[in-house]
Amino acid sequence: TSSQCFRHSLPADTIICSTSSSFDLSFSVTSNSSNNYSLDFDGVNDYIVKSNNIHGGDQSVITIEAWIKTTVGGTSSYPNIVSSSLGGNISSNIQNLQFRIYNGKLQFGMNTQASAWNAIESTTLVNDGNWHHVAVVKSGTGANQTKLYIDGVLNATGSISNTFSPDEFLIGAYREIGVLKTEGYWNGNLDEVRIWNNARSEAEILCNLNKRITSANGLVANFSFSEGSGNSTINSVNSSTATLSGPVFSSITPSVHNQSYLWSNGSTCPTISPVVSKDTSFTIQITEGAFTYF
Questions:
Q1: What is the pLDDT of residues 211-242, one digit of tens each?
Q2: C-alpha span between 166 and 86 (Å, rounded)
Q3: What is the pLDDT of residues 110-155, one digit of tens each?
Q4: What's the whole-model pTM score?
Q5: Which alpha helices (H) appear in 234-286, and where do they start and end?
Q6: DSSP 54-100
Q7: Pairing relationship of beta strands 219-223 and 187-196 according to DSSP bridges
Q8: CA angle, corner 205, sides to 199 and 210, nearest 5?
Q9: Exposed, middle or buried, 134 (CB in 10 Å: 0-12/13-18/19+)?
C-alpha cells in the first residue's frame, strides 16, 4: 500500500507570540488505529504469570510502566500492578519486588532475605477511577536513585538498595512465601505494561506514554493486551506468551496510538520546547504504519 501524504501549512503572515524565547509547540492528528482492549482484573483471584526472569538481571536497574485505572484505596490491601519474586513457591522465601497501590497512592518496594521491606511512595492519589500512566525507574542502589512518575511527571524520589534476581513475574498480583496474597490482587484495569532493563529518563517516559512500543533498546517485556480473547497474552518483544488466570479483556482503554513523530530539529516527541528567534520555522512528519500524515 502506498503512503498517503497530507501537507498542511500556516499562512506566511502567521505570527506566534511568546513572552520568552522558549515555548511548547505540539501537534497531533486523529489516529488511524485504536487501542481496542485493556485487561479487567476482579481483585479476587485474577493475575498473569510469567515463570521466568523477564528482566534478566538482579533488578538493581529497572523501569516498569503501565496504564492503570482503579478506585481501590485504604491500607488493608495493596493491589499490585507488577511484581517479581525468587523461589515464589518455596515457603521460606520472602524475596519480592512490588509496584503497587497502597492507601490510594503509588508505591514501589523490594523485600529480600537480607533486607527488610524498603519502599518509596507517591504524594498523589492515583485511585480516582481515571486512567493514569505510572512508572518507576530504579537507576541504581544509591541515594535518590529510585523515582516514581505519574502521567509523565516526576512525583517522588527515594533510595532502595535491595536487589535480587527473580524467577517469576506477575501482573495483577504478588507472591510471598509460596502464597499468592489475597490483599495483593489488582482490582481494576491495566494496559500497556512495559518492563525495561535500563533506566528511562523523564523525557523518554513523557514522550512515549501515549505511544505503543513493540520493541526498543532495553525493552524486555511489552504487554499491550490487544488479543481481545483467549487465555494468554503476547510479549511483543520476543513473541512469548504469558498465561491469563482470570482477567478478561475490556473495551475500556487509555489513549494509546501507533503514531511516530519526527520534527525538523530531530525530536521524536509530540511536543517540543524550542528556542526560537525571528523567522524560525519547524516542520513535523507524523507516520502511522504505511501512512504519512505530514
A1: 989 889 999 999 999 999 999 999 999 999 99
A2: 4
A3: 988 778 899 999 999 999 999 999 999 999 999 999 999 999 999 9
A4: 0.83
A5: none
A6: SS-S-SSSEEEEEEEE----SSS---EEEEEESSTTSTT---EEEEE
A7: antiparallel
A8: 145
A9: buried
